[in-house]
Structure formats: structure tokens, C-alpha cells
Amino acid sequence: MELWGIIFLVAGLLLFLVLVALLLIFNGLVRLKNNIKKSWANIDVLLKQRSDEVPNLIATVKGYMDHERATLEALTKARTEILQATTLSKKAVADSVITEALKTIFAVAENYPNLKANENFLKLQTRITALENELADRREFYNDSVTLYNTHIHSIPDLVVARLLNYTDEQWFKASEEDKAVVRVKT
Length: 187
Prior knowledge:
The protein is mainly alpha-helical. It contains 7 helices and no strands. α1 packs antiparallel against α2. The longest helix is centred in the N-terminal third of the chain and has 61 residues. The N and C termini lie far apart (about 95 Å). The mean pLDDT is about 85.
């Protein structure tokens, strides 16, 4: 009788340890998933701030750059798209359009000495440049969070729990080909 008691005690202890391990893994995966959501929300906040600054930049630049209307219209359209986007991929596409249009505006501003010297333009350019730098940092943090999560769901023992819960890879924030291209200034 004593042997059966020891066997049940050991089996119960092992079951308890397995359950604790599964719980710890589950909680770790939840933390990683929430970290991804938080890091994307941080990007979203900066995208919103940048979108709020874009109308001021357009208003400041409009008078100087009448023949650059296509760039200004693309910027306005992308701003609307980013504010209406509901998915990460749609926001990423609109974000790359805004980034490209901003690069073009800042590059073309070199051809307009009065615009380049305009205090409002300089302030907006500084503010948007700072936002772009913060966005780059937040995108990097997001990708780090995704990498950590994706590594965990493919590593033992987390793999077992991740498969049971149908956890799948998260997508990295990637620069579009346009973002990687050198900005060409039209003169």
C-alpha cells in the first residue's frame, strides 16, 4: 500500500509541475503577444502625431510649391489613408507613402530659398524629422518584439503550448522598396 501511495504522490507532483510549466509558458507567450500590441500602439501614436502635423506642413508649403501639387496631394491622401487604416499592413503602406512624400517635400524645399528660411517651415521640418526618428526607433522595438515572440513560439517547450493555442508568426514592420530608394529632387 505504501508503494502505491508513493507512486500516486510522485505522479501527482509531476502532473503539478507540468501544469505549472504550462502555465508559465502560457503567461510568457501572452506577455510577448501583448508586448507586440503595445509596441504597435506606440507606433500608431507617432503616426497620429505625424498625421496631425502634416496639414500644417502642407499649409506652410502650399504657397511656395504650387507646381509640386502632386506631392502635396499624395501627402494629403496618404494622411487620410493612415487615419482610416484598420490593419497593420494598410497603415504600413500609408506610412511609407507619407515618408516618401515628406522626403520629397524636404528635398524640393532646397529650391525655394524663402520657404527654406520660413520659420514655420523650419519648425515643422524639425518636428517631423524628430517624429520620423522616433518612428524608426519604435519600428525597431516592434520588430524586436516580433522576433522574440516568433522565436519563442518555435522553441521547445513554448512550441507545444503555442501549437495548442494556434499561435502563429507575427509579421515584421518592413520598409517598402520606395522607402529604400534615394529621393530624386526634380529641378
